[in-house]
Amino acid sequence: MTAIEIRDLAKSFGSVKAVDGVSFTVEAGSVTGYLGPNGAGKTTTLRCLLGLVTPDSGEALVDGRRYVTLPQPVTEVGAVLEATSFHPGRTALDHLRILCAAAGLPDERAGESLAMVGLADVGDKRVGGFSLGMRQRLALSSALLGRPKIFILDEPANGLDPAGIEWLRGFLRHLAHDQGAAVLVSSHVLAEVEQTVDNVVIIARGRLVRQGSLAELTTNGDSAVRVRASDTATLGPALEAAGAKVERVEDGLLRVRGLDASAVGQIALDQRVVLTEVTQERSDLQKVFLELTGER
Amino acid sequence: MTGLVKAEVRKLFTTRLWWIMLLVMLVLIGVNLTFITAFAGVTNEASGGAAIPGRETAEWVQTAWSAGAGGSIFVMILGVVMITSEYRYQTVTGTFLTTPRRGRVIGAKLITGALAGLLFALVALVLVAAVVIPATLLSGGELSLSESRIPQVSLGILVSTSLYGLFGIGLGALVRNQIAGIVGAVVWAYVIESIFTAIPVLHPVGKWLPGGAAQALMSIDVDTGLGRPEWLPAWGGALVLIAYGLLFAVVASATTVRRDIT
């Protein structure tokens, strides 16, 4: 069963097409990054998925059903939308206990969830005194209350310090890879999710521009191998004879297309040429992201 | 539904507003009672009669007892805040994520608002009883439940104060802005209703307003010096109040259920 399915989703606010025919899926056991610049339509998509915004057309389903029809939504989907959504005069624990009561969960889940995000010590403190990072953790703990198997997180790294971001990465990987959860996490900062996500969905101006695994996105079809060798005059023709396109970048440095690094190494060994560098070129993800979203 | 009401009750009692409102209500009713007690039986030279009956009379007990209705504005403000603070602090997102069937959330809020009204009315009545009963007995009066109509006035206070909680929730759902909602509630209770229920010429309209209907339910029948008001019969007042309660409940649901939460 596909955990999250977005199909031809469209939503306009006035004359602005916030989301314009977006489709993608998220499977259990994986982290999917939902990327795009600010205002691309990420939040609107997630809010349609969670029944907070009614789409103009198309469907957004969790476990094959609309969110609003789920009998016990918090036990199936954990969502974090914005870190500011707390009453400042209410304590962290009270905030979670309210959600427990509304969801019919035992009150102990409030303390347990708070401990899972490292906030056990500040449960009886008013949220008004919390830093943005602490609010993010509290928001995440509210998503954990019902032990769901699907997580939908909107910019969860906002306001986290580097240690917090590192913690979040580990936590999301743990949820997806160890507990088999489906995680959809949006971000406008690529570097935040680059080391966490398995799959990437890129959106710009309301439209989907790219969907695929992180590996597919970073190793473009025309990926090249940089080869530095003692004797390029011998190696170059040998590689060309093997069917590669060889470009001489500078003295002693070749850029080879059509062969992978191990094939290059084998040919070098046959020709008794010493290799000093063999690098599989990966296109810079940030560059790809900017190209795809049209922000250069 | 029990869980949702429990959640709403927790929302109300885990922030400080409720006891601030309760405290202000007690101060206001206390000031009012002090005035009614101090000036009881004092003769007004212009009209030659006493504006407030003597403390030993059943009329005084009835007048003083009705001061317990002073909590309704605070319950209405509480109702406004129960809705508007969800929008102000965006907790409405978490609320509707937990309970996507929004009509049920509104239902739980209405029940909780009515329960809060009941609580406030009970506290007000305790204060009123603690002042009025000793005052009239010390002045040589007798406490006759039937003549002073304490049960009926008390019931009126309980019902009308509860319903003001519903009015507040309906108003809050309509305007969504906290400041606008609170200002609206205060202007409504202290300006519009005061004018329409205090000035006899406007009574034909005023008796159909929630404030006038609440007065009718209590059957306060005391000349305030501006002429004897003509309220609806008590049962008519009750029906009008319930109709307003239903109206505001419908408004609260209709304005909330399909709205995009962005």
Largest sheet of chain B: none
Shape of chain A: elongated
CATH level 4 superfamily of the largest domain in chain A: P-loop containing nucleotide triphosphate hydrolases
How many whole angstroms does the radius of gyration of chain B measure?
19 Å
The helix/strand order of chain A is EEEHEEHHHEHEHEEHEHEEHEH
The portion of residues forming beta strands of chain B comes to: under 5%
The number of helical elements of chain A comes to: 10
Helix and strand element order of chain B? HHHHHHHHHHHH
Fraction of residues in β-strands of chain A: 25-35%
Averaged pLDDT of chain A, please? 88
Structural class of chain B: mainly alpha
- Count of individual helical segments of chain B: 12
User: Average pLDDT across residues of chain B?
Assistant: 87
Computed over alpha carbons, the radius of gyration of chain A is 24 Å
Transmembrane segments (chain B): 20-43, 63-83, 110-133, 153-175, 182-202, 234-257
Protein name (chain B): ABC transporter permease
Pfam family, one (chain B): ABC2_membrane_4
Keywords (chain B): Membrane, Transmembrane, Transmembrane helix
Q: Can you put this structure into words, describing what you see?
A:
The complex is a heterodimer of chains A (296) and B (262). With 296 residues, chain A is α/β, with parallel strands linked by helices. Chain A folds into two domains: 4-218, P-loop containing nucleotide triphosphate hydrolases (Rossmann fold); 224-280, Alpha-Beta Plaits. Chain A has helices at 42-49, 92-103, 108-116, 132-144, 162-178, 190-194, 214-218, 232-241, 261-270, 285-293, and strands at 4-13, 16-26, 31-35, 57-62, 77-80, 150-154, 182-187, 199-204, 207-213, 224-229, 245-250, 253-257, 275-280. Chain A is elongated. The two termini of chain A are 38 Å apart. The radius of gyration of chain B is 19 Å and the shape is elongated. The mean pLDDT of chain B is 87. Chain B is mainly α and 262 residues long. In chain B, helix 3 packs antiparallel against helix 6 (102-138). Chains A and B meet through helix 1 and helix 2 of A and helix 1 and helix 5 of B.
